[in-house]
Design goal:
Chain lengths: ~375, ~375, ~375, ~375
C-alpha cells in the first residue's frame, strides 16, 4: 500500500487506521522560519472533527494534535514535522461484524483482493478518518501560503438539489453556516433537506467549491505537471470525490469559443481578464485571476437501510450497517478539500522557483 | 519548465515544439519482450494527425514516427525507447505576428511571465502538437495492456449540445464516425452543428468518454495514489480539458445514498455489481467493473473573429487570429485521452505488483 | 530540509531530533502479509543503542520502539507502518553551551547557514540518534529479504590500524565481539587500541564491511539506477561515512584487466564465477555472487581535547566539548550500514519486477 | 530497464545503444534564459570521443551533437532540451560472435538474465558509448554552474601504480596531458606504463579526482539526500567505477579525531577551515571549502588475451575478444565524472532554494 506520500518537494507522508493507535503525518520539505504551534493546527482539525453539528456522526473524537518534531522555539527548523492524533477509543467490537462481508460503496472488497486481507475495524486505512492527517499537513501549507499573500477558501456549493445563489454568496459566511454553505438562505434550505433524508435513513451528496486569491502568475509546469492537473489529482484522492472541475468545467464543453475565451485587458496599468471562464488557469499555469475549482462528493455509502451484498463465503446476503455514520460527508470534507488545494499549491509554488536563470542567479548572488 | 516527465515506474519523457525540429518522447521502464514496430505506433498517430476530415485544420502534417532505440529484432529490450516525429515544415513566418500580443484562451501570457520570453512559433511547447508524443508513448502502453487482456476505448460523447444516446451507442462505430462518435445519428447531427459554427467562424467544445474493459481488481494505491486520482491528473494534463468525472461523476453529488451504492452480488459464482455508478473504482482501486471516465473539452480558443486582448507594449488592442485552426479539438483529442488513460493504467498495474508478500515470494522463487 | 524520505517504491520517511520528543519513521510500500512485531524490531535497535559496552557513550537510552499503524493481528496490512521511539530524557541543559559556536567536524555551521538557525540540542536533526529510525525501518526490510532467502551481514572490518585477517573471519562471531569484529584476535587487539585512545581523549575511525548472500541475478537497473550506485548513496547518507567501495574497490584501480576480470564457469551445471573481484555486481546488476561492500567511517568529531573554532559573534575561540561521546562510531554503526543496504535491496528487488513482459503476464494471469 | 532518468528537479533522460541509430538525452527542468548552442556542447563531447590519442580505441566516431528542442534564438526556453548524437556506422557484424557467450567483466550475463535477451551489438545499452548522453547533459549543467560562479574540474589522479604528485599538480595542465593528468611528469610516466601494458595486450585502471570551487554553503539536504550521498550515486552509476571517496575518504578511517577534524577560523572576517579533510562537506552539506572527490576505475574488461568463460549452451569455453578496445577507460571517463558531478550539483542547488521561508518570501515579493 504505497501511495501515502504526496508531493515532489513539499512532501507529506501519512499513516494510521480508523481504529488503530492513531493517525499521523510527517511533513518533509517545510522551509525553516515559519511560526508554528499545536494550537494553530488544532483550529483546522476542529473544522473536520465529528460531532460538531446534528448533521455529522455523534461519535466523540477530540482529535487533539501533538507536534513531535521539526518545531523549535515556536518556529519550523526545516526538519521533518511529525504530527500525531492519538485515537481515544479503539472500539473494534462495533465493527467486527463487517469483517465477513463487503459493504456496498466501500473499499472492503478491493482491499481484500489487493492485499489478501484487511484491517476491517472501522474501514481501517480507507476510513474517512485518514483525512485528519491531510488537514494537519494542510494547515502548515496554508500558513506558508498566507505568508506569501495567498488565501484558499473552500465551502459547500450544493447539497443534494440545493445550490447556493452566487448573488447571495459571501465568503465571510462560511463559518456561520453549520454546513459551511456561505449563502445563508440556501444553507437553511439544505438543513431542511438533510433532516428529511436523515429521517428516511438515507444519505446525501453535494459539491464543494474552492477559491484561491492572490496567486502569482505562472505557477504550474507545462505538459504533465500543470497546476490544474495536480489540483485534480489531489482533490480526486479524497475518498468519495467523483468529479473535478476548474473554472466553467463541464459547462465549457457546450460553450462556443467566442463566449468561453476570456479577453485580456489593461485596467489601471494592470493586466487582468474581462471574465474568468478559465478559473484562473491558462496552459496549466496560474494567470493571476482567482483559481476556482469544484469537487463532486457522492452520498455517504454507509446507510441504515437494508442493502444487498455478498459475504466472504461467496453468498448473496442482505445487510443492515450499524454504527453512527455521517448522513453527509460534504461539510466535514470542506476543510479536507481546502487542505489538498493548499498542499498542491505550496508544492507547485516551490517547483516554479527554478524556471528562470536570472532569478536563480539573484537568489544565489553573494 | 520541468513537468514533461510522466509516471513513477513506466516513465514517459516528452520534448518538442510546434515549429521546432520535431516532437519526441523517451519511454523508460517498458518491459522487455513486447512486440513493437514503427508501423504499429503509426496507426495511433494517424488517429490524431490533422487533415483527416473537414472538421480539423487543413494543415498537412504526415507525423511519421521513427524509433531510435530500445527495440531490437522487433521486440522491446527493456532499454529506453526513443521515438521522434520530425516536423516537415517550420513556417515560422505564419506566426511571427503573435509574438507581440497575448491570444485569449492561450498560454502566451503565462509562458512569458513564467519564463521571461517564449518560443512563440505556433504556440511553441504549449501547442496541441505536443500531444503527438503522448500518443506515441500511449501506443506502447496500449500494447502492454492488450497483452494483459485490457482494452481502453475512448470516443466522443458530446459536441456542443449534441450528446450520444446510450441506447444507440456501439463501440464498434467509433472508427466509422468522422467525429469518433459511436452513435451514428448523433454523429450526423454533430456534423451539421459543427458546419454551422464553422461558417460563423466560431469554435465548439465537447465531452470525451473512455471505457476500460478487462481490468484486474485492486489496481490503484490507497490514499494519494488512487487510480481515479492518477487518471484525473493524466487527463487534466491535456490542454483544453476543464473537467474530469469517474462513473456518475457530478451527477452522483445530487443522488441519494441508496441509489448511488452499487450492490455486490454473485452471478454464476462470479462477484459482480448490480450497477456501476462508481465507474469501476472503489476506494481508489479498480473493482473489476468497466472503468468509465469523462473529460470536458473547452472550445478551441483560436477563432477567426475579432477579439479584445493586450500586447506586450501594455496596450489594449483588437486582434484577428489568422492561420488554419481546428474548429473543434474533440475528435483529434480522443486518442490523446485514450493514451493518457493507457499510460496511467500501465504505471498503476506495475505499482500493484508489490502489494502482497506471497506474490513477491512466488515471483522470486527459484 | 527535504531529504528525509528514502526509496522509490519501498519508501521510508524519518523524523525526529536528538533531544526532541522522539525519533520515528513511516514505512510506505511494505507488502501485506509479513509477520511483524515490536519485539522483532527491538532486536535490531538493541544493536545500535548506546551503553552496550565501555566503547560507547555511557548515556542510558532504552530506545523502546512502538508500532502505531500498519500491523494487524501480527501481520503487515500493506498500510504505512509508523514506528516511534520516544526520547526518555530531553536534557537540553547539557547542550545549551554549544548553541553559540560551531563544533569542528559537525554540521552546526552548515545548518545555521542553510536554515538561518538550528535546533542545537544534541545536534538536533544531525545527531547520530537519527539513525534509530533507519534501523527500525531496516529491520522490516531485513524481514522481507529473509522471506526471499537473502541475508545481509555487516561487521567491523577495521578499527584504526587494526584490520581483520580474512583467514580468521567467521561471520558467526559478529555478535560475540563487543566491536562486532568477527576475527576474535583482531577484535581483542582493537579493544586495546581503543582503550589507549580513549585514555588520550581522542577518537578513532574504521571500516565497516557488508556481505549479502542469496541475491537473485539481475537486480539493479542499468545506467543511473545501478544497484551499486544506489547502495553507495544509501551508505554514504549515513553521517561520518567518507568512502564507499564495491568488491575490490580502490584496489581494482591499480590492477590489470587480466587479474581483475572474474572468469565465468559452470560448476555442476550452475553458472558461477571463479573469483569475485566485482563484489557481486556486473553492469550495475547483481550477478548471483555475494555482494561485498565497504564503508569508511571517520573518527568521532566530538573529542574532549581543546580545539580551535569560531563562535557566532565571528570570533576565533578555543573549545572543550563536554558530554558523554562515543570514542568510536563504528560498532554502533554496523547495524545502521546493514539497514541501509537492506532498505536499498528491497527497493531494487521490487523495481526489478517489471523487467520482463512474460513475468508480468504470468503475475496477472487469471 | 527503468533507470535511465536522473535527477529530482533538473532531470536527465538518456537513451540509445552502442550500435543502434544513435545516443540521446532529454534535459527537463533547465531554467529559461541560459545561452546554449551545439558548438558549446560539442566541446565537451570532444573530450570523451574515441581516437583522440593512441591510448584510446582507434574507432572513428565523430559524435556530432544536434539540439532538437528547448533552445530558441540562442537561449534555453525552459522547455525540454532534446539532444541526439547519431551513430555513423552500425557495424553489427563486428559483434555478432559475442551474442552467444558472456564476456568476463561485462554485463552480458546479467542483461540476459534480467531481460531474457539482449541487444548484443557492441554491448548495446551497457556500452560505454551510453556516457555520450551524460556528457551532453553535463555540458548544460556546467553552463548553469558557471553562471553561478561554480567551477567543476576533473582529472586523472592515477593510472595503475602511477599517481600525481600534489606538489606538481596544476589544474591548468589538465588539457595539456594526453591522459588529462595535470602533473606532466606523472603523465609521462603513465604513458610509458600504458604503452608497456598495451604491448602485453592487457588493460589498466586508475583513479579520477574532481575538485569543485565556488560552492555556496549549505547545499545538500540532511539525512538521505546529503550532497556527498548524491555525488556518490551519480559517480558510481558510471560503468567501471568501483569506489567513491570524499575528502580524505578511506584514509580518514585510520585517522584520529584530533587529526581529522578541520578547525574553523576567521581569516580577514571570512569563515574558513584550517584544513579540508572533510572534502568540503559537513553533515551532508557543502561547507564553502573546495569539494574534493575521487572515483576508482577498474581496468577495461575487454582484453585481447585468451579468457575462460561460458556460452549460452551452458559450456565452459575459451574466448579471444576481438575489436578495437580502449586499453584504459580513465582519460575518456574524466569528462564523464565531471559531468555527473555537475548534474548532481545543479539538482541539489535547486533543491536548496526552498530551505528558508524568508528567502521564498523575497523570491515571490511583488
Amino acid at each position: 500500500m504505497a501511495g501515502s506520500i504526496l508531493g515532489t518537494i513539499f512532501k507529506v507522508s501519512t499513516w494510521g487506521e480508523s481504529h488503530g493507535k492513531g493517525i499521523g503525518v510527517v511533513v518533509d520539505g517545510c522551509p525553516a522560519g515559519l511560526n508554528m504551534s499545536e494550537e494553530y493546527i488544532q483550529t483546522y482539525l476542529n473544522r473536520r472533527k465529528p460531532g460538531q453539528t446534528k448533521y455529522s456522526t455523534p461519535r466523540k473524537e477530540d482529535d487533539h494534535v501533538e507536534i513531535l518534531s521539526g518545531v523549535f522555539e515556536g518556529r519550523t527548523t526545516g526538519a521533518p514535522i511529525s504530527m500525531v492524533v492519538l485515537n481515544q477509543t479503539q472500539r473494534s467490537s462495533d465493527y467486527s461484524e463487517i469483517a465477513n462481508y463487503y459493504r456496498p460503496g466501500h473499499a472492503d472488497y478491493t482491499f481484500d483482493t489487493k492485499y489478501g486481507f484487511r484491517d476491517y475495524r472501522g474501514g481501517g486505512r480507507s476510513s474517512g478518518r485518514e483525512t485528519t492527517a491531510r488537514v494537519a499537513a494542510g494547515a502548515i501549507a496554508q500558513a506558508i501560503l498566507n505568508s506569501l499573500g495567498i488565501k484558499v477558501s473552500a465551502y459547500t456549493r450544493s447539497i443534494g438539489p440545493i445550490t447556493i445563489n452566487y448573488e447571495k454568496l459571501n465568503l465571510e459566511n462560511i463559518m456561520k453556516s453549520p454546513l459551511y454553505m456561505p449563502d445563508m438562505e440556501a444553507s437553511a434550505n439544505a438543513e431542511d433537506f438533510l433532516m428529511q433524508k436523515m429521517k428516511e435513513s438515507n444519505s446525501v451528496g453535494g459539491v464543494i467549491e474552492c477559491v484561491v486569491k492572490g496567486m502569482p502568475v505562472g505557477i504550474g509546469e507545462p505538459v504533465f505537471e500543470k497546476l490544474d492537473a495536480n489540483l485534480a489529482k489531489a482533490v480526486m484522492s479524497v475518498g468519495a470525490v467523483k468529479g473535478f472541475e476548474i473554472g466553467d468545467g463541464f459547462k465549457s464543453a457546450s460553450m462556443l469559443g467566442e463566449d468561453n475565451n476570456d479577453a485580456f485587458h489593461y485596467e489601471n496599468s494592470t493586466l487582468t481578464k474581462e471574465t474568468n471562464h478559465a478559473g484562473g488557469i491558462l496552459g496549466g499555469m496560474s494567470d493571476g485571476s482567482d483559481i476556482i475549482l469544484r469537487a463532486a462528493i457522492k452520498p455517504t455509502p454507509s446507510i441504515a437501510r437494508t442493502q444487498n451484498t455478498v459475504n466472504k463465503a461467496n453468498e448473496n446476503i442482505e445487510v443492515n450497517i450499524k454504527g453512527r455514520h455521517d448522513p453527509i460527508i460534504v461539510p466535514r470534507a470542506v476543510v479536507v478539500i481546502e487542505s489538498m488545494v493548499a498542499l498542491t499549491l505550496v508544492d507547485m509554488i516551490f517547483q516554479n522557483m527554478y524556471s528562470r536563470l536570472d532569478k536563480i542567479q539573484e537568489f544565489y548572488k553573494k
